[in-house]
Q: What sequence folds into this?
């Protein structure tokens, strides 16, 4: 079976590519290599069942070329930055890009799409852990809004054009090859100045983190087991860690002593930036009921990630 992974040269996408190849699928990757790299694909590029198309989901012809003859599209290409958001960039890469992917699927009669959505669709949820049927869905970042818009588009194509769709609302996914988010940010800051670490916000932000192998495992599991035409699942761990805890883990793993940890205080009651969801914990009961549980909790996921990123940065 041939599958397409858009954004397959990125962090989560490349782990998904590796896993799909290991399981015997033929994999096409469409990526414009803006944040993704061929380095992430060094195993895949040696594989005879793998093809990389350097192209853009905003360009119809690139997408046509990639989608044709595939059974499933794992749609992971996006601008994943919650923080640095230029609304048009999110609109074009995330919403317009998804629309172009769906239109190509319609043209070539490709029926299955698995979409990388996000916990940010919930905004500041009042129920925690937050279940999939929580309402109102009120994103507080343009990124979150773009993910919710994509979910809606996919649902509409399922109901109108007979596609099958899965929207996966990931918590913070971390692990080897990660190049954005708080863990990577802290490591880079401490490499520049090992004496002081600036923490955006008031440091009490608490969120759930999931190791990338668990995330990929849940993704493949759901792709194979869900029978409904369209469904939505949270994918996360069952606990959370604070930003201050993450800072301490990074300092500790880097073997640093007497580091001054200082918070910027943040905006709107201690958020790191406007649009930063301060507390996030997803309910994974729906996923659990199908028989899947994560192997690592949030703290372990963060610790494993810091260790692997330090190794990666050391070996270049
Ligand atoms: N990392 C997380 O914690 C997390 C959480 C929830 C959802 N997601 C979603 O998962 C997906 C992957 O995120 P990631 O963390 O691996 O980020 P990433 O930046 O490593 O991966 C995104 C990939 O998409 C590619 N890309 C971006 N715009 C493109 C375009 N216009 N055309 C073709 N390729 C393009 C990039 O080059 C990159 O390889 C994204 O959709 C992101 O929104 C990530």
A:
């Amino acid at each position: 079976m041939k599958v397409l992974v858009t954004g397959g040269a990125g962090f989560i996408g490349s782990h998904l590519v590796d896993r799909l190849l290991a399981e015997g699928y033929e994999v096409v990757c469409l990526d414009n290599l803006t944040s993704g790299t061929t380095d992430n694909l060094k195993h895949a590029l040696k594989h005879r069942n793998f093809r990389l198309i350097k192209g853009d989901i905003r360009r119809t012809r690139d997408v046509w070329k990639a989608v044709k003859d595939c059974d499933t599209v794992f749609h992971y290409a996006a601008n994943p930055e919650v923080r640095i958001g230029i609304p048009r960039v999110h609109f074009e890469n995330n919403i317009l890009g998804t629309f172009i992917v769906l239109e190509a699927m319609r043209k070539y009669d490709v029926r299955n799409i698995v979409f990388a959505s996000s916990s940010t669709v919930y905004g500041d949820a009042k129920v925690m852990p937050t279940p999939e049927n929580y309402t109102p869905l009120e994103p507080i970042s343009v990124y979150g809004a773009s993910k919710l818009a994509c979910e809606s588009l996919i649902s509409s194509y399922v109901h109108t054009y007979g596609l099958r769709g899965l929207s996966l609302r990931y918590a913070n996914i971390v692990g080897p090859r990660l190049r954005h988010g708080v863990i990577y940010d802290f490591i880079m800051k401490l490499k520049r100045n090992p004496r002081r670490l600036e923490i955006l916000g008031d440091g009490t932000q608490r969120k759930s983190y999931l190791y990338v192998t668990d995330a990929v495992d849940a993704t493949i599991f759901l792709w194979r087991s869900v029978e409904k035409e369209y469904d939505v699942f949270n994918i996360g761990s069952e606990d959370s860690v604070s930003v201050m805890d993450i800072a301490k883990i990074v300092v500790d793993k880097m073997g640093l002593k007497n580091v001054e940890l200082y918070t910027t205080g943040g905006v709107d009651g201690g958020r790191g930036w406007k649009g930063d969801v301060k507390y996030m914990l997803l309910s994974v009961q729906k996923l659990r009921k199908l028989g899947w549980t994560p192997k690592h909790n949030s703290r372990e996921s963060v610790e494993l990630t810091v260790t692997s990123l330090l190794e990666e940065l050391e070996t270049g």
